[in-house]
Amino acid sequence: MSRESGMMWGITIGVVVGLIIVVFLLRWFNRDRNLKTEYDERQQQIRGQAYKIAFYALVIFEAFIGILSIGIDLPAEPFVLHILAIFFGITVQVCYCVWNGAYVGLNTNMHRFVPLMIVISLFNFFVFVMRWRDGGVFENGKLQEPVINLLCALMFAVIGIVGLIRKLADREVEA
Fold first, then answer.
1. Is 105 helix (H, G, I), strand (E, B) or coil?
2. What is the chain's alpha carbon radius of gyration, rounded to the nearest angstrom?
3. How many CA atoms lie within 13 A of 137 on its CB side?
4. Which of 37, 67, 82, 153 is 20 to 30 A (C-alpha) from 31?
5. Do the Cβ atoms of 89 and 58 come closer than 8 Å?
6. How far apart are the first and last CA of the chain?
7. Which of 40-54, 67-81, 156-170 has the highest average model confidence (pLDDT)?
8. 138 three-state secondary structure
9. Nearest CA to 80 among 3, 134, 151?
10. Is pLDDT above 70 for 35?
């Protein structure tokens, strides 16, 4: 098996296992152990707007990457750039929802949610650092797949910072 083939199998297995874990985590996050998070009408409307904004952000980001790739050799593998675009869209969607008070569902247990998001961010950062120490981040002058772990950690960090700012802003308004 070639290195590229092994890498793709590893990524595929990682995504499948990740999706299975997400299903279990969604049930664990919700107080009623339901797989589906419940939102009120206002939250559903905001989330719909967030999905629309995130879709356009993703399209613009992909178009930007496409245009840049015509004239120059980008410093990352195409796979990494497309995952970056996906993470960008997710970050836009979640941050919009957090800022507008539509991210936390009516049945979400935040005492479980926040610590797990911190653990996921730290785990991804740790994996990136370990791969960086082994020299697996750059190959032929291009960022390789381990940088996806760093992107994931940064995505969760940005979302956490927006959530913290929102919480502090809410406290000021209440005071």
1. coil
2. 18
3. 14
4. 153
5. yes
6. 62
7. 40-54
8. strand
9. 151
10. no
Tell me if 93 sits within 8 A of 54, measured CB to CB.
Answer: yes
pLDDT of residue 64: 93
The span from the CA of 39 to the CA of 113, in Å, is 16
Q: What is the mean pLDDT of the chain?
A: 85
Which residue's entry shows tokens 């979400």?
108
Tokens for 105?
Answer: 């569902």
Query: The tokens of 138 are what?
Result: 């750059």
- pLDDT at 164 > cutoff 90: no
166, 104 Cβ separation under 8 angstroms = no
Q: In whole angstroms, what is the distance from residue 143 CA to residue 152 CA?
A: 15
Helix (H) or strand (E) holding 116: helix 110-133
Q: Of 156, 160, 87, whose CA–CA distance to 125 is shortest?
A: 156
What stretch of H or E contains 82? helix 78-99
Q: Rounded distance, CA 154 to CA 84, Å?
A: 11
3-state secondary structure 142-172: EECCCHHHHHHHHHHHHHHHHHHHHHHHHHH
Tell me the C-alpha to C-alpha distance, in Å, between residue 30 and each of 23, 39, 148: 11, 12, 28
Paired strand residues for 108: 30
Are 99 and 158 in contact by the 8 Å Cβ rule? The answer is: no
